[in-house]
């Protein structure tokens, strides 16, 4: 489990495809503090298991499923990636609950600079648009962001200078493909309200009574 608050940007030192997936080697520094084999690190929002560490890198095995769903298929040596270690029980949740399980990829449509702030507009598959709501949370390449506007499957996020300057957003270009994880709360609500869920006790009346809608 993660929060979407990026701790460090690393650099891809090696990305080698093989018959059943890929090996990913990332150069980094502070993220390695107290990191050991078997720990989870979110790379551009995608949860990866550390299989080896060195003084300035960690290594992970990337599954074929991850390659199919995420933008990892486009990774190249030398590109920056967002890094976050998994939550500990004492960690502050500064963003929102991020699982590190990517739902889909999206495309950067527009980058608008407003003095020090930025507006970024993204397009996602129509099948995922129902999980994105105005003022709701979404993770873009592992970064916890708030949806400022949404129109069908196109949404805009407002980026503060700190987030822009300390993540890979600063190197984004129009047309780039990014990893998207929608808010897990929306999926749970959808499941509870589904008519096929016969044991469901959470319904529209319950949500109204408790001030959710």
Describe the structure.
By secondary structure, the chain is mostly beta strands. It has two domains: 8-85, Elongation Factor Tu (Ef-tu), domain 3, CATH 2.40.30; 104-189, Elongation Factor Tu (Ef-tu), domain 3 (Beta Barrel). 13% of the residues lie in helices and 40% in strands. The protein is built from four helices and twelve strands; from the N terminus they run βββββαββββββαβαα. The protein has helices spanning 64-69, 161-165, 184-193, 204-209; strands spanning 8-18, 21-27, 40-43, 46-53, 57-63, 80-85, 104-114, 117-123, 137-140, 143-151, 154-159, 177-182. The strands form two sheets. It has a six-stranded antiparallel β-barrel. β9 and β10 form a beta hairpin. The longest helix is centred in the last third of the chain and has 10 residues, at 184-193. It starts with 7 loop residues before the first strand and ends with a helix. The model has no long low-confidence stretch (mean pLDDT 90).
């Amino acid at each position: 489990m993660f929060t979407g608050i990026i701790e460090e940007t690393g650099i891809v030192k090696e990305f080698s495809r093989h018959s059943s997936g890929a090996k990913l080697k990332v150069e980094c520094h502070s993220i390695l503090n107290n990191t050991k084999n078997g720990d989870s690190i979110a790379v551009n929002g995608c949860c990866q298991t550390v299989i080896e560490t060195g003084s300035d890198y960690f290594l992970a095995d990337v599954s074929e499923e991850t390659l199919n769903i995420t933008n990892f298929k486009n990774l190249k040596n030398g590109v920056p990636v967002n890094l976050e270690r998994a939550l500990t029980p004492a960690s502050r949740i500064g963003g929102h609950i991020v699982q590190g399980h990517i739902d889909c990829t999206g495309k950067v449509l527009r980058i608008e600079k407003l003095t020090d702030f930025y507006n970024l507009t993204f397009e996602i598959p129509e099948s995922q648009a129902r999980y994105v709501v105005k003022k709701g949370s979404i993770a873009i390449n592992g970064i916890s962001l708030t949806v400022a506007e949404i129109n069908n499957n196109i949404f805009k996020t407002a980026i503060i200078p700190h987030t822009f300057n300390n993540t890979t957003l600063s190197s984004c270009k129009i047309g780039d493909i990014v990893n998207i994880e929608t808010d897990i709360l929306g999926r749970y609500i959808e499941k509870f309200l589904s008519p096929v869920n016969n044991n469901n006790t959470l319904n529209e009346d319950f949500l109204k009574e408790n001030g959710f809608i």
